[in-house]
Amino acid sequence: QGVIIGMSNRSVPGLNNVPCFSPALIATKDDIDRITEAVDVALTRVFG
Q1: Total structural domains in the chain?
Q2: What pTM value is reported for the model?
Q3: Domain-located, residue 1
Q4: Alpha carbons within 13 A on the beta-carbon side of 17
């Protein structure tokens, strides 16, 4: 999808289960839309 999202390691020990979104401060609405669409596609692929 062309988007990289990091995972936190400060949540439940052994489970990096918190996605970290940190787009640049100069991100446009189109940039944010691309990120949210990519996350939606990925979650749909995993969870149906």
Answers
A1: 1
A2: 0.67
A3: no
A4: 5
